[in-house]
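Milestone M4 deliverable, item 7.
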Amino acid sequence: MKTHRITGGGGVQLHVVESGNPQGRPILYIHGFSQCWLAWSRQLDSDLTRDHRLVAMDMRGHGLSDKPTAGYDGTKLWAEDVHAVIEKLGLREPVLCGWSYGSLVILDYIRHYGSDGIGGVHFVAPVTKLGSEDALAVIGPEFLALIPGFFSADINEAVPALKALLNQCFVKQPSAQDLFLMLGFNVAVPPHVRQALFSRTINNDDVLRKIQKPFLITHGSSDIIVKLSAAAAIKSLVPHAEIHIIDEAGHAPFWDDAASFNARQRAFCQGLGQAAQATSAT
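Output delivered:
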C-alpha cells in the first residue's frame, strides 16, 4: 500500500493511501466525522483491488493529516483538498465515494469544480445539509444526544461519547481489537475539529439538482445515525440516483457487510465503463 503527502487547501498537508490496480478505474474514498482512512480497510484490502485503483484520504483535521485550528467552516478549502488529491495522483474520472460527512465534502468539491472530471458519485449513509431543521430531521436522536461529548476537551466526557458513536455505527460489532483501533483514531481528532465540523451551515440541494453523473446511494437498513429518509430526499433531487439498501447493516454498511457493499460498488463502476463504451460507439 502506497502513502502520499499532498498539499490541500490553504497549505494543509493531507495523508492519502492507495492500493489496487494503478490502471483501473479510481475510487476515491472520503471517510466520515471523526474517522480516518482505516475505516475503508475492508475495501482497500479486498478483491476490488484487482480492477480498481483505490485511494483513501484523511480529511483535514483527521487521521495523519494536518489539524489546523481553523479552515473548516467554508466550502472552498474542503473542495481544494479533494481537487488536490485528484490532480496530484492523476485520478482520471474517479468515482467519489463519501461516507456520512464525507458526502458533504464531495458536494463541496462539486460546488466549486463541477462534476465533468469525475466518473460517478457514491454516497454511503449520506449527510448533505447542516445547521437547519431539515438537516436535523434525518439524524437519529441517539446520535444527537452524543454531540456535547464530541465537543468536550475532557477525556472523561469525550471518550465515552466516541465509544457510543462506534457502537451506533455497526449492527455486527467489530472485534475488540478493531474497536480499540477505531477508538484510537477517533480520539486522535481534536475536539476543536469535531466542533468546527458541526458549526457549518450548508444546504446542497442546489448542487444535487445539477448532478448528471451516475449516482449511487448505499444505506444500511438498520442505520440509527442517518435515517433512510435521507436517501429518499436525495433521490427527489437526483431522479436518476440508484438506492442500494443493505439488510442487517448499520451506519457503516461497508464494514457490516463488506461483501455486499463491494459487489455493488464493483457493479456500479462496471456500469460506468459500459455506458462510456456505448457513448463512444454512437
